[in-house]
Design brief:
The complex is a heterotetramer, with two copies of chain A and two copies of chain B. Chain A contains seven helices and five strands. Chain A is an alpha+beta fold. Chain A has a five-stranded antiparallel sheet. In chain A, α1 packs parallel to α4 and α2 crosses α4. The radius of gyration of chain A is 19 Å and the shape is globular. The model of chain A has no long low-confidence stretch (mean pLDDT 95). By secondary structure, chain B is an alpha/beta fold. In chain B, the strands form two sheets. Chain B has a two-stranded parallel ribbon. A two-stranded parallel sheet of chain B has the order 2-3. Chain B is globular, with a radius of gyration of 20 Å. The model of chain B has no long low-confidence stretch (mean pLDDT 96). The chains are: A alpha+beta, B alpha/beta. Chains in contact: A-B, A-C, C-D. At the A-B interface, α1, α4, α5, β2 and β3 of A face α1, α2, α7, α8 and α9 of B. β4 of chain A pairs parallel with β3 of chain B.
């Protein structure tokens, strides 16, 4: 989905504020929110990491931007625990005595919308192009590289394909490629020469350039 | 909704979820705090500093680290979630690497710890890929014009660790002394090390 | 700029709620906010419409998404009245007894970054491609058509070029073209055949396809 | 900031700006309310309904409207800000038009009025161009599969008015009666007219 989470290349966010000697958690609830998500994925096995990422992406955009990382994590985890039937929203709200905002429902995507496994494999040094197809569900192709051409720097082992895994479709694994794009290719500005961005892309996100 | 108009604070929401899971016997009291505490201990960026210092002082370790980051980090005991496939990016006098996750905030937890707030904030996630050299300069990384800048976006399952340049003037330092000057920011690529 | 305002094609915003027999203004302050902007542009002549649009685009993204249209208008107008020296922020906050959020400062763009006036003109029926260059200041090229190819449906008269006008650079005018893009070209999905999007683009945003 | 931690409500902000402008002699008391009232009167979508009804009943007017929307709207007295260059998009049995402004909320004020909230909300601005037929169906515009759907994004200075299909069963209706069944939504293209 072209969601609010897909921030690469967006402008207008202001300065980057680095806090020195930052603690792991600034408040106690943040550690418990982190633990809750570890629990949901790793111990209760109520959902997987791709479903989790997609749940965060499904947050209302204004909520997403206004929330801290751990509030986003908490919202994704709580949404999935409710959607999977582990917890009941009314019970939670009754305990809290207040409304608990969840993420929006999953779009009604069907398995046919997932692009077929790649026909081609690539090697280090190959030029590749990011396919233009846009999946309405979870995907890990950033908007800013769609249709762009780069060069393979590294081939990683096969990992589970997130578009299928996040939606419970038939599991499949594919190698991922670290693809280097010149910044001039991405943003069309000559003064970005000598700068590049490497994006790690599943095989079926790519095609040979024409 | 049964909760009325007020939105629960995040702290209240976690407490409600914890209480409901406890009531249903899914977890015991203290389970979440226990997981948080062990995560805080396990995922520590000082681990990455030890990897870097060892690579600076032991050429054969450095070669193993660049060839197979996962295995070389595990040699020192640094492995686990978000460290299943680690690739080390070596900074050189002509190439500067920095790492971001534009889509969420993926990070090599076993060697970089849980990511800091600035790494997870929209400004860093949005801006670094759009203006690599400019944003790094803004963050204090001033690079000569002939140094190539390469940003790596953590969009799949590989996790990245930057091997920073060893600062001049540390030629006879011990591995322990070197580890103490490595910062988390330098291993993400948004700081240069000096002594 | 790739700002939060550039919403075309984004997903995750939920349902479209149409209110029947909607009034022009729902609350009194909305009419006064609208009037304030008319005043700022047309009567005080403190700023122009392109500067106004850019001021709204410069709002912090979370503020932008959380604000209604008239709050966005009010924020843009107030920001410009302060930036142009017509009003003083401290005075306003003293009157209000509370903080008044403004938009972020203009990026430090320079005139050289504006693409040169177009070398080519186009006619109805011509195929044209949207140039890939991305201006960090105000521009009216939506992200979703960058690099895409379409067909000219209509040629409109010359209008002031917003990228220059919003930043006080030397004024210039160019015809705008109503360019029709097939939805399959924009989104890569075959099932969008028979659907298209027309975007109205200044001449220098376009080039002849290779 | 001198205002403390609380964020002023939009109503308070307008009041503060109005007060400061009045104090400095830039405007008089009531200036903003006066401008708002005249805008409310001048920019009225019922004007567009009159244009549509006249085009349905007067073929030569329709020809002029499609050839030069600006001039044909001005013939009826509808002109002014955001109406400097109006293009009319004719719906036919094989082509359905709808209008959006993805970047802000540009609208042909003299004939469509100031735009309604749903037109200005992120959901409409974001979604219509991404799934034209699907979003229209969700809004109640069910089109046969062989009807082409064309969305026009108001990204420059042209302002658009959709000329909806005249509903069957209105063949002998007067221009006034026809104007009364034209809705604002139909002139944006997100509703079909029936009687």
């Amino acid at each position: 989905m072209n969601g609010i989470h897909d921030l690469g290349g967006m402008e207008g966010f202001g300065a980057i504020d680095v806090e020195s000697d930052e603690p792991t958690f600034h408040e106690g609830w943040q550690g418990r929110a982190f633990a809750l998500n570890m629990l949901g994925i790793g111990i209760l096995r109520a959902y997987n990491a791709d479903e989790y990422r997609h749940a965060v992406e499904r947050m209302a955009p204004a909520h997403y931007l206004g929330a801290s990382y751990y509030e986003r994590m908490l919202t994704g985890a709580t949404t999935l625990l409710v959607e999977k039937g582990v917890l009941d929203l009314a019970t939670l709200e009754s305990i809290a005595g207040a409304t608990i905002p969840l993420a929006r429902a999953v779009a009604d995507v069907v398995e046919d919308e997932i692009v077929e496994p790649a026909a081609a494999s690539f090697a280090v040094g190959d030029r590749v192009r990011v396919r233009g197809v846009q999946f309405r569900g979870h995907t890990r192709v950033p908007r800013y590289v769609r249709g762009k051409t780069g060069v393979v720097l590294h081939v990683a082992p096969a990992f589970g394909h997130p578009d299928t895994s996040a939606h419970g479709f038939a599991a499949r694994s594919e190698p991922t490629y670290h693809v280097e794009f010149e910044a001039t290719e991405l943003w069309g500005e000559d003064d970005l020469a000598g700068e590049s961005v490497v994006v790690d892309l599943w095989e079926s996100y790519l095609e040979a350039p024409q | 909704m049964s909760g009325g108009d007020r939105i629960a604070t995040p702290a209240e929401r976690v407490a409600a979820v914890e209480r409901a899971l406890t009531d249903e016997g899914r977890i015991e009291a203290g389970t979440l705090d226990g997981l948080a505490a062990s995560a805080e201990q396990q995922f520590d960026w000082h681990n990455g500093a030890r990897v870097v210092a060892k690579a600076w002082t032991d050429p054969t370790y450095k070669a193993r680290l660049l060839a197979d980051g996962t295995k070389a980090c595990a040699e020192l005991g640094f492995e686990g979630p978000q460290g299943e496939y680690i690739v080390v990016l070596e900074n050189t006098p002509t190439l500067h690497n920095a790492v971001v996750c534009t889509q969420c905030s993926c990070t090599a937890w076993p060697v970089l710890g849980l990511p800091p707030d600035w790494y997870k904030a929209p400004a860093y996630r949005a801006r670094l890929v759009r203006a690599p050299r400019g944003v790094l300069a803004e963050m204090g990384v001033e690079l000569a014009a002939d140094v190539r800048v390469r940003i790596t976006d953590t969009t799949a399952e590989t996790r990245f660790l930057v091997l920073p340049l060893r600062p001049a003037g540390t030629e006879d330092w011990s591995e322990e002394a070197l580890a103490a000057i490595v910062t988390r920011e330098s291993m993400i690529g948004v700081a240069l090390l000096t002594v």
